[in-house]
Design a protein that fits this description.
InterPro entries: G_AIG1 (IPR006703), GIMA/IAN/Toc (IPR045058), P-loop_NTPase (IPR027417). Keywords: GTP-binding, Nucleotide-binding. Belongs to the TRAFAC class TrmE-Era-EngA-EngB-Septin-like GTPase superfamily. AIG1/Toc34/Toc159-like paraseptin GTPase family. IAN subfamily. By secondary structure, this protein is of the alpha/beta class. The protein is about 40% helix and about 20% strand. The chain folds into two domains: about 5-210, P-loop containing nucleotide triphosphate hydrolases (Rossmann fold, 3-Layer(aba) Sandwich); about 215-255. It contains seven helices and nine strands, in the order E-E-E-H-E-E-E-H-E-H-E-H-H-E-H-H. Strands 1-4-5-2-7-8-9 form a seven-stranded mixed β-sheet, with helices on one face. The protein has a two-stranded parallel sheet with strand order 3-6. A hairpin with a 2-residue loop joins strand 4 (about 60-65) and strand 5. Helix 2 runs antiparallel to helix 7 (about 215-255) and helix 3 (about 120-130) packs parallel to helix 5 (about 165-170). The N and C termini lie far apart (about 70 Å).
Length: about 260
């Protein structure tokens, strides 16, 4: 399989079908959503770093089952947190994700582990964070339910039906869902079925991708640069203060 590349450096020829996917989701306590792992599973390559929290939105591209598939991984938010409690830079990175797969994503995959303790606060948190995108985001969303244990779809379905808050989230997303057993990476049929569901969604949406305001992309990039520069200046100031304090302490020690 050809090596995965950043989207803007891809030199692959375009197959008949192109799919653009943005992974979204959060974390609960110490339980991560598994977005990066799901992205690697879809692309069939370990292109997203799963050893650390995703801090920046990142796009990778690969040919999968004859389709040119672009996957964008994004920073997660804490489930239960309001959008105002999510760091501004994370909000900007989440918003910017749709600009990394021009002209816009076909689908958002909302990644939720099957054993998450989904509560009512999840639904409110989800709604607020999805407002970072356009109003039609729910019509472009599939819930991707991940598991690391080899549960059957029947067991997963039974588990979901016992969680009212999850049922309400699924209703918001048109009851579109797919199960991923991340422990069975050899089962590529899971990926094939997901891509088929995405294509069905695209057809039902009249072959429209999620609309993206290009001018917003420039504004977001400027905001990111400004925030990064301010953070860098604050860091430099702290380092200078620490250096002065250290010199002061060392000077007093020598005088005694």
């Amino acid at each position: 399989m050809a090596a995965s590349t950043d989207i803007y450096n891809s030199a692959q020829s375009q197959p008949a079908t192109e799919l653009r996917i943005v992974l979204i989701g959060g974390r609960y306590n110490d339980l991560r959503s598994g977005k990066s792992s799901a992205g690697n599973f879809i692309l069939g390559q370990n292109v997203f770093d799963t050893s650390r929290r995703t801090a920046q939105s990142e796009a990778k591209q690969q040919e999968v089952f004859g389709r040119r598939v672009t996957v964008v991984d994004t920073p997660g938010w804490w489930w239960g947190w309001s959008r105002e409690e999510t760091p501004k830079l994370d909000q900007i990175e989440i918003q910017n994700s749709v600009h990394l797969c021009p002209p816009g994503p076909h689908v958002f995959l909302l990644v939720i582990p099957v054993d998450s303790n989904v509560c009512q606060e999840f639904k409110s948190s989800l709604k607020q964070h999805l407002e970072l995108f356009n109003a039609d985001v729910f019509s472009h969303t599939i819930v991707l339910i991940t598991a690391v244990d080899p549960y059957s779809d029947e067991v997963n379905e039974f588990t979901l039906k016992r969680i009212p808050a999850m049922q309400r989230i699924l209703q918001q997303c048109g009851d579109r869902k797919h199960f991923f057993n991340l422990s069975n990476k050899e089962d590529r049929d899971q990926v094939k079925k997901l891509l088929e569901k995405i294509e069905t969604l695209i057809t039902n949406n009249g072959f429209r991708h999620c609309s993206v305001d290009r001018s917003q992309g420039e504004t977001l990039r400027k905001e990111m640069r400004d925030l990064t520069e301010r953070a860098s200046k604050r860091f430099d100031q702290v380092q200078k203060q620490r250096k002065k304090l250290k010199e002061l302490i060392e000077g007093r020690s020598k005088s005694h």
